[in-house]
Specification:
It is built from 22 helices and 23 strands. It is an alpha+beta fold.
Length: 618
């Protein structure tokens, strides 16, 4: 399928397509006769510009037209041939016309919809704004929709120079370079699952390189929802072994053994044909995080020490330096004390507990809350003392940090930004994180979520951190996590020098805003429980059904982490998006309920013992 400008000679053929499409809704001959003049496409309309068609090798599939004068465009028509309904033609045309209107300088787009098409426009994120009289049938009213056409944020083009990229899911490779005991507890399966987030390293990937195979339905489902075209997928050797057909599967990424994930960048480098194919795309390589192996693959090394602020101790020192320099009255950096030995950590814990203080114990590194424990005086007493608590934690140096009390919907915030190759730090924005205990559970981005005072303070401080990272030679994505204290000040707790869950939300928001207009709320749900573990075909059906049900609610459903659905205790990572907060909440409720309800499929089914489990007869 492709979209191109209509040709004047196609006017009659396009008029016939429009009339067939209108008649699809069951209108009688009298109604169709009344609408005929309004629906007719003239060669002069096409010559004036603004009429576009979707076509494939079989012929014309749909047509759309844009008219109006700035600041408001009008989607004059959008019709799909009945034979092509259900193939995504309408959404492709709609996205093209939104982009066309934005490029022509329109601030908004109006739509007078056929009542039968109102559901489609709601699913596309358009906002219902009332009704207007029909231009053909007296007394008939048509649903009226409006779409905001805000320009893309500046960071989108700055991130990869406005082009697509090769995405590498090198999660295990990144974590392994820090040799932190808390990271050693993360299994290869966990790294594999989170490597799937590499699909969202930019708003529209050119190629995706993963360490292991993924469900066959996954990338096509994402591509349909986000209008990703020509995305090449390179995955682990399981694809070749099982005979799956994928772009690039003829040259799979090697995997050295079952006990650990490969150094993915090194694995690609070791396959000259694969590396040459990826380089031939002529686009940047974007990893989960920078490593020496990635530097060799991409030819873009980082100077020594560029990743040092991934360390929570070095990050805290940076925060204290920036706060001392002034200009950040809304920032209160928590105190932190190194505990190089278990004896030192025990003394710190006991001393602070006697004073009634809660302490946060941290390993030097960690992801998603791993290696972080909140120790209250009550917990210390119940556990039998500081040493009993410490015996449960990973070996290695610890940091003791002041616990910041606070509450409310903006208790946990993050600022995301990045540093480009020329050393310029760019702001992306702030997100509200969901944290249970010390564990990350998800994040939401969108307009109006973070109060202006908190947003201003987080952005000013995050900008300063970005400048410091750039001066140290760091290049790439980063974030700064904050806790909001009881007085409304922000306490910065760590930096992450890599892509993270909130970055996924920003990427999806940018893509949907581009395709559908408006300003979307996007929520990343890190771990969504499934009521049952399904075979891959049934999982594909479940994911497709969730996408349809969310669309009916005016929301978008994206499975971000599909591979965990095959764990003994199955779960998914998902992304949900909508233009309206109520639609987003309804979609999340529906997805959670339907996913847990999978367990009902097996209610009353008793396990059948295999012959080897049965007692011997005689």
């Amino acid at each position: 399928m492709r979209i191109r400008g209509a040709r004047p000679a196609e006017a009659a053929e396009l008029t016939e397509l429009v009339l067939r499409s209108k008649a699809y809704w069951g209108y009688d001959e009298a109604f169709m006769a009344a609408c005929a003049d309004e629906l007719r496409i003239h060669a002069s309309d096409i010559e004036a510009g603004g009429v576009y068609v979707a076509e494939d090798a079989g012929g014309l599939l749909g047509v759309a037209a844009l008219t109006g004068r700035p600041p408001e465009a009008e989607l004059e028509l959008l019709f799909v041939d009945p034979a092509a309904i259900g193939r995504g033609v309408g959404s492709r045309l709609y996205g093209h016309m939104v982009g066309l209107a934005r490029d022509r300088g329109f601030a908004r787009m109006a739509i007078a919809a056929d009542p039968h098409a109102a559901r489609f426009y709601r699913q596309m994120g358009a906002r219902r704004s009332g009704a207007i009289p029909s231009g053909s049938v007296t007394g008939r009213e048509l649903p009226h929709f409006e779409v905001e056409l805000a320009p893309s944020p500046a960071w989108v083009d700055a991130w990869t120079g406005g082009v697509r990229a090769v995405h590498l899911g090198n999660v295990a490779e990144y974590n392994r370079q820090f040799a932190d005991p808390s990271l050693a507890g993360l299994t290869p399966d966990a790294a594999h699952h989170y490597s799937c987030l590499a699909a969202f390293h930019t708003p529209h990937p050119a190629a995706l390189v993963l360490p292991r195979p993924v469900p066959e339905c996954w990338l096509p489902l994402l591509s349909r929802q986000l209008h990703w075209y020509d995305v090449e997928l390179y995955e682990g050797p399981g694809a070749a072994e099982t005979g799956r057909s994928r772009a690039g599967a003829a040259d799979p990424v090697p995997e050295p053994g079952p006990r650990s994930e490969p150094a993915l960048s090194a694995a690609v480098t070791a396959r000259p044909a694969l590396a040459a194919r990826l380089r031939a795309l002529g686009v940047p390589f974007v990893p989960w995080g920078w490593t020496p192996q990635f530097a060799r693959l991409s030819g873009r090394p980082l100077p020594d020490g560029a990743l040092r602020y991934e360390s929570k101790a070095d990050a805290n020192a940076l925060f204290r330096r920036l706060a001392a320099e002034g200009g950040h009255p809304g920032i209160a950096v928590p105190r932190q004390w190194p505990a190089g030995s278990r004896w030192t950590a025990a003394r710190l814990l006991a001393s602070r507990a006697r004073a009634g203080a809660t302490t946060v114990l941290k390993s030097a590194h960690g992801v998603g809350g791993s290696g972080t424990t909140v120790v209250t005086p009550e917990l210390l007493r119940a556990a039998g003392g500081a040493r009993a608590v410490l015996r449960r934690l990973p070996r290695g140096p610890l940091l003791a940090e002041e616990y910041v009390a606070g509450a409310g919907p903006c208790r946990d915030l993050t600022y995301d930004g990045f540093v480009t190759e020329d050393g310029h730090a760019h702001r992306v924005g702030t997100a509200v994180m969901e944290v249970a205990g010390t564990g990350y559970r998800g994040a939401t981005v969108g307009p109006g979520l973070v109060p202006a005072a908190l947003d201003d303070a987080a952005c000013a401080f995050g900008d300063a951190v970005g400048r410091a990272l750039a001066a140290d030679g760091y290049r790439g994505w980063f974030d700064v996590d904050f806790v909001t204290d009881a007085d409304g000040r922000l306490a910065p707790t760590e930096t992450n020098l890599r892509l993270t869950g909130p970055s996924v939300a920003f990427m999806v928001q940018a893509r949907l805003d581009e395709l559908r207009g408006g300003r979307h709320l996007v929520r990343v749900v890190d771990r969504l429980e499934l009521g049952a573990r399904l075979p891959e075909p049934q999982l594909a059906d479940h994911l497709s059904a969730l996408a349809r049900r969310c669309a009916e609610l005016g929301a978008v459903f994206l499975p971000a982490i599909p591979t965990a659905a095959f764990e003994a205790e199955p779960w998914l990572g998902v992304v949900l998006a909508a233009a309206d907060p109520a639609d987003l909440a309804a979609a999340e409720d529906r997805v959670r309920a339907d996913s847990l309800a999978l367990g009902g499929l097996f209610a009353g089914v008793s396990a059948r013992r295999s012959p080897a489990d049965r007692p011997a007869s005689g």
